[in-house]
Write a structure and sequence with these properties.
- This protein is an all-alpha fold.
- It has helices at 15-26, 40-50, 66-81, 92-96, 115-128, 138-146, 149-152, 154-168, 187-190, 206-219, 224-240, 253-276, 320-339, 343-349, 356-373, 388-409, 426-448, 457-471, 486-500, 505-518, 536-544, 565-569, 573-580, 596-601, 651-655.
- Helix 18 packs antiparallel against helix 19 (486-500).
- The protein is globular, with a radius of gyration of 25 Å.
Length: 670
């Protein structure tokens, strides 16, 4: 029998060759026993299967998923109190309602809104969604509608319907409130979309990519699994026409629209993959498409070709935000791939470097520091910025930035890590990034006076859970949960989420989780964090109808018929100025910390005095009944396999934070 010789890996070859060699050789060797980290998703699947109460946790949930983070917070609190969470605040409607089950099959031509309403919805879409993800070119889009293309071309007509569906959630026009269920706002347009997929046999057009972008955005907070699948289809179609590759020649309207749609799909794929703990469809190293031309829509076209796509030097471009966001998103993608990979990948990365994780994190931190230094002046955080559009973009950008910091350092928080402690000050970095994110979100909420900001929901929820890890890990510090100032910051996150829950279903679910984890005995929540009581009719309806038909309580008073939309969702300059003047919260802590080293050096725990009226006798009441059972992702959860006295030993938390924040230097210099 012939046995081939295995050539030793030479120390003179480059790291890329070494990595490839190790990867290839691992394919010809027996697979090692599964690592505990790689089996975490199986425990989560068992939890989900044990109690299928929510559609949101169906399907695979990996290491980076929000469910994993929430489980850690629940285990920490239940271990602290020595009992299961009662889950008495859980509103079953947000956990079980599925708007897709109420779809009405549509036959015949598309039904578009009345012309005046269509115009209003287009205004809202470009003001509230295209502001962040500019996949549409407004002059071209409106010319096509004026020419009636949406009545002749089924794909472009679908794009128009999706624009209407997305914008409907920002409008109080009574013509859009025919649905008795607020969580189905906009579905009257989505329901008309053709269910067949014959277009996959056609050559993709830019309208196809726009269709998948918009469909995914509409379903993001109601059907996340469908959203994830739609993004994958859109990216495959983009690759089919080479949209992921660099192009030659002068820019055109069509070439720029291809780039916009492709990069929107890529960025959204990464975000939704992170939220579910899944692998991204497109990897950074497989893409060399150029970023967007930083030029506003009105300057794309010009009779003089030399002046086309030229932004006036004295006018910052709205599209600068998306390029800035994409650069952050690229850093995030590298961190997601490296730090949340399977253990077999980590074995390759650890070859000849057992401290590889710390080195990777140092490089990521260095990249983030470089990114923050390059933010354009008009997008830097300024709570007093007079331009509403740039303020909104800046708030989203900084919330996203702090979320990326939390994602990078989350695996190294002691209560999330089962392994050798690291020298990384990750607990401090995550906690203070969460504090900063909550401050940005609170400033935005107060300035916008109730206008929802669903684009920051993921960042704000992540911040809330990270802060709750802080609240419930203070046993050995002598700081009771009710004295921890992080609880106040959790309330800020809840207030931001509460504004969105009427029309964005996941917001209600996020709120319930934070509410349950942040409730300490009978201490009341702040007024702006408490949802209104349901109307009596809805309470009786809840008692006699199936859970899937329960109506959520309204979060605001009904609007008058055909209100002036601009007064609701397009604040004037004077409105913004007056809102800014009433925001002392934005200046309580001075400038926002941005560099990772700054966040790592800040205190982890802050103490706040109790309110005089609070009584310690009701902090930890006896366990109450759980009306709807425990959520899927915590059913059957076991506490960490450690001695009871050691479960909340905080010494190792502070030991891992000793020294200068970010003490490990980047491998290849700044």
């Amino acid at each position: 029998m012939h046995t081939s010789d295995v050539t030793p890996i030479s120390g003179s070859v480059g790291p890329g060759v070494i990595l490839a060699a190790l990867n290839l050789r691992s394919m010809n060797t027996p697979a090692p026993a599964p690592h505990g980290d790689d089996l975490a998703h199986l425990r989560l699947i068992r939890d989900v299967s044990a109690m299928s109460l929510t559609q949101f946790s169906k399907g695979f949930q990996g290491k980076s998923s929000g469910a994993m983070l929430v489980k850690a917070a629940i285990e920490l609190r239940e271990g602290y109190e020595g009992k299961d969470l009662p889950w008495s605040s859980r509103r079953i409607h947000y956990w079980t309602y599925n708007p897709a089950k109420h779809q009405v099959p549509h036959v015949g031509p598309f039904i578009f809104p009345d012309p005046d309403l269509l115009s209003t919805l287009i205004d809202l879409y470009f003001a509230r969604r295209n502001l962040y993800f500019p996949i549409l070119h407004r002059p071209t889009f409106e010319r096509s509608i004026a020419a009636g293309l949406h009545t002749r071309d089924i794909i472009f007509g679908s794009v128009v319907l999706l624009v209407c569906a997305i914008a409907s959630r920002y409008s109080e026009d009574m013509r859009l409130q025919q649905e008795t269920e607020p969580l189905r706002r906009g579905w009257q347009f989505y329901d008309q979309l053709p269910p067949h997929s014959n277009h996959i046999f056609e050559t993709p057009t830019v309208y196809h990519l726009q269709y998948y972008c918009l469909a995914a955005w509409f379903l993001e907070f109601s059907c996340p699994s469908a959203c994830w699948a739609l993004i994958g289809i859109g990216l495959r179609l983009a690759q089919d026409v080479g949209a992921h590759r660099q192009r030659e020649g002068q820019p055109t309207v069509e070439s720029e629209l291809w780039k916009r749609a492709f990069w929107a799909l890529v960025s959204f794929d990464r975000q939704i993959s992170m939220a579910n703990g899944r692998t991204c469809t497109s990897q950074y190293e497989d893409i060399d498409a150029d970023l967007l031309i930083e030029c506003d829509d009105e300057f794309w076209e010009n009779e003089d070709p030399a002046r086309a796509f030229v932004q006036p030097a004295d006018k910052p471009s709205l599209s600068s935000f998306f390029n800035c966001y994409l650069r952050l998103n690229n850093i995030f993608a590298v961190g997601l791939k490296m730090l949340y990979s399977l253990n077999k990948t980590k074995r390759l990365l650890s070859y000849r470097d057992q401290a590889w994780e710390e080195h990777i994190v140092a490089e990521l931190d260095s990249a983030l520091n470089g990114w923050i230094d390059q933010i354009p002046p008009h997008l830097r955080w300024d709570p007093n910025r007079p331009e509403d559009a740039f303020f909104d973009q800046s708030a989203f950008l900084y919330c996203s930035y702090y979320q990326v910091q939390m994602i990078i350092h989350r695996p190294f928080i002691p209560m999330m890590r089962n392994g050798v402690p690291t020298s990384l000050p990750s607990l401090g970095i995550c906690t203070n990034a969460a504090r900063s994110c909550s401050l940005v979100a609170e400033t935005s909420r107060l300035r916008k006076k109730g206008v929802p900001s669903p684009e920051i929901l993921s960042s704000v929820f992540t911040s809330g859970v990270i802060l709750l890890l802080n609240v419930w890990s203070g046993k050995r510090t002598g700081l009771p949960p009710y004295m921890n100032s992080a609880l106040t910051e959790v309330h800020k996150c809840m207030a931001t989420i509460l504004v969105c829950e009427k029309l964005w279903q996941t917001a209600g679910l996020f709120y319930d989780i934070l509410h349950e984890l942040a409730t300490i005995g009978q201490l009341p929540l702040p007024k702006d964090v408490t949802p209104p009581d349901p109307a009596p009719s809805n309470l009786s309806k809840r008692a006699r109808e199936n859970d899937d038909e329960v109506q959520v309580p309204p979060t605001s008073a009904p609007a008058a018929s055909h209100p002036p939309t601009g007064n609701i969702y397009h604040p004037t300059h004077s409105d913004s100025a007056s809102a800014v003047n009433t925001l002392p919260i934005a200046h309580q802590f001075g400038p926002l910390p941005t560099y990772t080293t700054d966040l790592g050096k800040m205190p982890v725990f802050h103490q706040s005095p109790p309110r005089p009226s609070e009584s310690t006798s009701s902090w930890y009441p006896m366990q109450s009944a759980t009306p709807f059972g425990r959520p899927d992702f915590v059913t059957g959860v076991q506490l960490p396999n450690r001695e009871a006295d050691d479960v909340f030993n905080m010494d190792h938390l502070f030991a891992s934070d000793v020294g200068t924040a970010g003490g490990i230097q980047p491998c290849f210099g700044e």
